[in-house]
Amino acid sequence: MRTVFHVSTVDQLSYVDAKVTNLLADETVPVSHVAVVVDNPAVIDAAESGDGRERVETVLAAGGDDAETAFRVCSNALRGATATLDDLPHGVERASSGVGELTRLQADGWAYIRP
Amino acid sequence: MRTVFHVSTVDQLSYVDAKVTNLLADETVPVSHVAVVVDNPAVIDAAESGDGRERVETVLAAGGDDAETAFRVCSNALRGATATLDDLPHGVERASSGVGELTRLQADGWAYIRP
Amino acid sequence: MRTVFHVSTVDQLSYVDAKVTNLLADETVPVSHVAVVVDNPAVIDAAESGDGRERVETVLAAGGDDAETAFRVCSNALRGATATLDDLPHGVERASSGVGELTRLQADGWAYIRP
Asked: Which InterPro entries would you find in this protein's record (chains A, B, C) (predicted)?
């Protein structure tokens, strides 16, 4: 199974890593892919440093050998942020749009969670 | 692909038009239908005039020749609102229930986004 | 059709029963199963007594003879709560994880609603 988490606030960023970790630790649910999609400039800026950056890095490392995790930021939101894609942790990807990515993944069978 | 946005607060109404516009502008995602479903009386009242009304009109016009957009309000929420369906912009439709409409669309393959 | 409501705040608990009732009362949508999934300790504690407990009991009774309703709490959130599963209304179930349950149900075709 595959799950996408839709993050739009700094508060949601502060616990989405725990949600991703809980999902991957749930042995009753075979999860192969998890993505976090961010569509808000303030969250992108929060992901550049400090606690926010650690959350992103935790998500990107959470899959280990068993699952793929991704962290994607909306290109529209990137334009409104101070941080650039290069300022974010290695592995963060640009999505054409947050809402487009959320649509595409669900159309491909991913579950959606608003944390 | 088809996407439904679930709007329950006046704050969500204030930016859902931008989300719909971003989705339809994303050339990497072929979107044929977008719906906004409102299930809260305060949002219905906000959609009657001023900025809220403009947001609704933007959503209804956003598809152009390429996609169909709809704006639907829950009949239960309508009973709690001061505004009536006739007070809302032309094109706004009544849904039997907001949660019923969200269930029906997802069962038919639509993606769900909580903006 | 089947629908899962994802509840993470006490505020969401305070009206999720009305949403479930509205969904089951919508005769245009044939709904056979509704589940509420809670992934937050504060909501679990609120579900132990008073108004919160009544909401849970309303959800569990809402299906009548026509639909099955379930109320499930995340085992991770249970560990953070003061209330135990035995303190909650009869019929409340433990989910291995909230996010796992939300993934499993959507992968099985359930609609997702963030109330």
From this structure: DsrEFH-like (IPR027396)
Burial of C112 (0-12, 13-18, 19+ CB in 10 A): buried
Note the pLDDT tens digit of each residue in A75-111: 999 999 999 999 999 999 999 999 999 999 999 999 9
Please say whether the beta carbons of B93 and B70 come within 8 A. Answer: yes
Residue A39: CATH number of its domain: 3.40.1260.10
Taking CA–CA distances from C114, the nearest residue in chain A reads A114
Q: Does C96 touch chain A (CB under 8 A)?
A: yes
Element (H or E) spanning C42, and its range?
helix C41-46
Q: Give the Cβ contact number of residue B65 at 10 Å.
A: 4
Residue of C nearest to A12 (CA): C8
- Measured CA to CA in angstroms, residue B102 lies from A63, A93, B62, C22, C33 at distances of 31, 30, 21, 12, 15
Which of A106, A35, A89 is closest to A67 using CA atoms?
A: A35
Number of folded domains that form chain C: 1
* Closest C-alpha among A111, A107, B113 to residue C101: A111
Tens of pLDDT, residues B43-81: 999 999 999 999 999 999 999 999 999 999 999 999 999
* Number of residues written out for chain A: 115
Lookup: tokens for C63: 């299906």
For residue C11, the enclosing domain spans 2-113
User: For residue C76, which amino acid is it?
Assistant: N
Of B26, B112, B115, the CB nearest to A97: B26
**pTM: predicted TM-score of the whole model, two decimal places:** 0.98
Q: Who's near A100: CB < 8 A, 6+ residues apart?
A: B22, B23, B26, B28, B29, B31
Best mutation target among B5, B78, B102, B103 (most C Cβ atoms within 10 Å) is B103
CB-CB neighbors (< 8 A) of B29 in chain A: 96-97, 100-101, 103-104
**Contact present, B4 and B38 (Cβ < 8 Å):** no
